[in-house]
Amino acid sequence: MRNLFEHRSVDTAEDKLWRVPWLVLAVVSLLVAVGTTTLYSVAGGSMYPWAEPHALRFLALAGVVLGAALVPIRLWARLAYPLYAISLLLLALVPLVGIEALGARRWLGVAGVSMQPSEFMKVGLVLALARYYQWLPPEETSSPRRILVPLALVAAPVALTLTQPDLGTAMLLAAVGLCMMFLAGASWLYYAAGLLSAWAMMPVVWDRLRDYQKRRIEIFLDPDKDPLGAGYHITQSKIALGSGGSSGKGFMQGTQSQLDFLPEKQTDFIFTMFAEEWGFAGGVLILALYAVLLALLLAMALQASTRFGRLVIGGTAAMIFLYVFINVAMVTGLVPVVGVPLPFLSYGGTSMTTIMASLGLAMSVHVHRKERFEPGSLKALW
Amino acid sequence: MSWNWRRLVGLELENTFTRRALLLGAAQAGGLALLGGRLYQIQVLEAARYAPLADDNRIEVEILPPVRGRIMDRAGTVLAGNEESFYASLRYFRGSDLKQSLELMSHIVPLTDEQRMVYYDKARHQRAGEPLTIARDLTFEQVAAINLNAPQLPGVETGITRRRQYFQGLAAGHLVGHTGRVEQHALDDDPVLKVDGMRVGKAGAELGFDKRLSGQAGSRKFEVDARGRIIRVLEEMEPIAGRDLVLSVDLKLQAAVVDRLSRVGRGALVVLDVRTGEVMAMASIPTYDPAALVERTSAAAWRSVGRQSNGSLVNRAVSGLYPPGSTFKMVTGLAALEAGATHLKEQVECRGSYTLAGQTFRCWKRHGHGACDFHRALTESCDVYFYEMANRIGINAIAGMGRKLGLGQLYACGLPGQKRGLVPDADWKKLRFRSAWLGGETVLAGIGQGYVLTSPLQLAVMTARLATGLAVRPALQRDGTADIPAPQFMPLGIDERWLEAVRAGMIGVVNAEGGTGSNAYLPGGPAVAGKTGTAQVVSNSTRSEDGTGSNDGTRDHALFVSFFPASAPRYAISCVVENGGSGGATAAPVVRDVIELILKDDPALRPMPAVRTAGGRAEDAEPQGGGT
Fold first, then answer.
1. Residues 6+ apart with CB under 8 A from B157
2. B87 CA: distance to closest CA in chain A (Å)
3. Which of A220, A379, B133, B183 is the most exposed place for a label (fewest CB within 10 A)?
4. Which backbone phi and psi does B64 adopt, to 5 degrees?
5. Which of A245, A301, A325 is the closest to B31 by Cβ?
């Protein structure tokens, strides 16, 4: 416990500010700017109701991110388990006192403010897993006994979110967790075995899926099955993208989105909206920006000197990538429709808060990248 | 940076995290590349496929049906017009709550539960955005209620539709005709024909002048959003209203003629103005009321009219074919005179029958007429005289004269349903029966029996041509005013002496002692010329004794053709009374009464009002609707 604070940082806040990865913030700002512009177009050329709140929210969160980046990395490491525990507790409360909406219970209402504990859990899980591997001597990473603990850390929130039911978030949590375990060095064999058993489990899982989830998958496999029903979203999204062509219909000229044929265009389908108006060129530009962001995070991860730091950045990068990949794959009809927003572009406070918080942690790692605590130096699990 | 890379490659690759982080990074790069490829596929390779789909989504085309032209008589009395009525329609768009709309609608207009289910089903399954009519004949209050509640009635719209209105009932039935739905759509049909409520001409002038009356449909292209709300109109083409049609018919005379004829039975009567060929009246009994066939007149009601055994939908004046009987004798006589086969003074002895090649042909007068010259033969309608003439000149000469006088042909005057009839000749028989023409057949044809078939319209044309010596053609349309110069008909090229002889004979029919048409005589009026006809329906051997028996299908048809005033012909009339027996007894009195009607109130002498015809300009006369 004392080890954590053994080498107190002597850096001043100014020193730290110089080390903040401003390039990351610049790329993110660019993405948010694209999002704001698109939200302006979605509203038919108005800053309300989406564009201005989106931009203001980002500015506020950017301040929080900078604050988080300046918080000593050791403090974050120390807070990892408590944050995870609180998130898990809130998640467990959802089925009991949560607010039901659209056939699912995902929200907790506290004093008029509603929140989604599954979002906190995304940050909590990254922290907890990184914290665990910081404690674990690397040579024990693949020992069966040492695999079970992180598995349990992942499984608990996944199971809770599945019961809400929120398949999308559950899969995201599982994927982020597995990525981090992979980064930490868990043996390939576990993954191979996991894949095999997952394949074998498929029929069982299928049986347990809700009807609407099954339907989504069926419709995805054959969107023409119900072109005006559930397949409508995919079909209309593809029409919007295709009719946008290589150079797009022009800013505010997207007929599919402006005339409401496109669903959820300010949130989940914002990529389609953008790519209809800006074409293939615009779509690729956004993907390129994400690629740059991910590359920057990878470089930061490699420069981090602690296992905790590396895994925090790795987990954050994995999360951002998964968001982007699932969202864009969904709107282009590569995967079934699951409600996953596009980071920095989609309107909505919850997901932006989560991702910015993770980004803040990653930046804190980078700011404090020289601080070493040797593998296993945090002797106690707590 | 290079320092960094060397460090990464040289040293840190030993590190599991570095290796795996690079691996994951590569996987992420691969994932993003995959998405880029997918975008390329949709937005570049398949773009051409999606662009029209987006337009399909947003662009709706509404067909704007044109207003159908009115039909009027020569005095400007409206025979057919349009009545406007409100209707409500339902469109289905994704997300609109049809059930709620229908539920609310049922408070405004009566809709049974069953109707609601049917409409719900229909609306769900039709193309998105296509309107489905759910209520017609709405009152103004209902329309107001629907529009007031519009926000709660997504997809419900009200509109104005026009229904054909026929004002003159039975009097003008066959002339005006009626409109109806397009029963079978061709693939290349004008889209306007598919508009709900669109009607096309089905009979009479409605059909004959359909093109003129229907005008041209307009269209409106507009952009809609996903809920079907109209965002803006992209393109609009106003419909061009159909042009009004003024018929040559005089409604007053028409109504009187229909009334008079219907008192004697089935048949037809045609009154032509010999100078212009204009149809002044045209009656077909039984007649029908087109108003009974309007609009949703259910298919059942329609069938019941059509199924009636009296065939009231058939316009006998143009579609009814009858043997002309003795009215054909003018043709035979003229042909003989023209051929030089006889002269006016030659007498033929009639002993009541005529024998040719062992076959005996009887005259209607059992004991014979005695010696008949041309005039007497026509006046007293001696069959033997015309047997002899027919035998002398042969069938082809008779047929030639018949055609010259307008028989056996169709007239493009906007009267649909015309039948050509038959003026037989040797070639025709060879083609039809593959056998040679027989002398006995010529003899029969000479008195308008045998194969000869004519329509009342053709008989009227024939009479008009005899009266004028000109190739009069019938006309049904009269555009503009009386100032339009009468059409210049070509002379028939028949020697005026022979025509005068025929006219004199026809005057004798009505006015001379022994004339068969004395029933048409008008005391105190101008001289009337005419010719009776009594046409055998079946051959002698199969009918009742003398064809005058019961009024069944075997009784003779009674015919009378006439023109007057005899000295300066103005009108030609033909009349057929089916199974009416003797022409002189049954048809001649009808014609006499019609002439009396005309004399009392001559439509041609009445000042012609300048009839305003909406949408039409008198100068761009279009070719008349084909009645062929």
1. B88, B89, B90, B91, B131
2. 28
3. B183
4. -105, 105
5. A325
Interface of B with A in 19-38 (CB under 8 A): 20-22, 24-25, 28-29, 31-32, 34-36, 38
Q: Burial letters for A343-371: b for 16+ Cβ neighbours within 10 Å, e otherwise? A: bbbbbbebbbbbbbbbbbbbbbbbbbbeb
Residue A380 placed within a domain: no
Residues near A69 by Cβ (< 8 Å), separated by ≥ 6? A16, A20, A360, A363, A364, A366, A367
B219, B210 in Cβ contact below 8 A?
no
Provide, as residue numbers in chain A, all residues whose Cβ is less than 8 Å from the Cβ of B10: none
Q: Residue A63: phi, psi to the nearest 5? A: -65, -45
Q: How far is CA A246 from CA A252, A303, B535, B603, in A?
A: 16, 38, 83, 75
Decide which of B4 and B540 is more confident: B4
How far is Cα B205 from Cα B70, in angstroms, rounded to an integer?
11
Q: Is A142 within 8 Å of chain B by CB?
A: no
User: Could you list the residue range(s) of the whole structural domain that residue B115 is in?
Assistant: 87-124+131-165
Whole-number Å distance between alpha carbons of B61 and B233: 10
Name the residue among A138, A260, A332 with its Cβ closest to that of B226: A260
Residue B97, in any domain of the structure: yes
A244 in B contact zone (CB under 8 Å)? yes
In a domain, residue B429? The reply is no
**pLDDT interval class at B329 (50, 70, 90):** very high
Chain A closest CA to B127's CA: distance in Å? 11
B39 and A283 within 8 Å at the Cβ level: the answer is yes
Q: Which residues of A touch B98 (CB under 8 A)?
A: none
Q: In this structure, which amino acid lies at residue B487?
A: P
Torsion, Cα A183 A185 A187 A191, to 10 degrees, reads -10
Chain B residues in contact with A334 by the CB 8 A cut-off are 34-35, 38
Q: Inter-chain contact A259–B58, Cβ cutoff 8 Å? A: yes
What's the pLDDT at B83?
85
CA distance B186 to chain A (A): 29
Question: Would residue A289 count as lying in a domain?
Answer: yes
Within-domain flag for B99: yes
| Phi, then psi, of B35 in degrees rounded to 5 | -65, -40
Dump pLDDT digits (tens) for A292-344: 999 999 999 998 888 899 999 999 999 999 999 999 999 998 887 777 899 99
Q: How many domains does chain B have?
A: 1
Provide ipTM, 2 decimals.
0.90
**Residue length of chain B:** 628
- Is B119 part of a structural domain of the chain? yes
**Whole-number percent of chain B with pLDDT over 70:** 82
Across the interface, whether the CB atoms of A260 and B42 are under 8 A apart is answered no
Q: What sign for the dihedral angle of Cα B266, B271, B272, B274?
A: positive
Q: Does A183 touch chain B (CB under 8 A)?
A: yes
Contact yes or no for B35 and A244 at CB 8 A: no
Q: Which residues, including other chains, have CB under 8 Å from residue B150's CB and lie 6 or more apart?
A: B156
List pLDDT tens digits, range B354-411.
Answer: 998 888 999 998 888 889 999 999 999 999 999 999 999 999 999 999 999 999 999 9
What residues in A contact B7, CB-CB < 8 Å? none
Domain count, chain A: 1
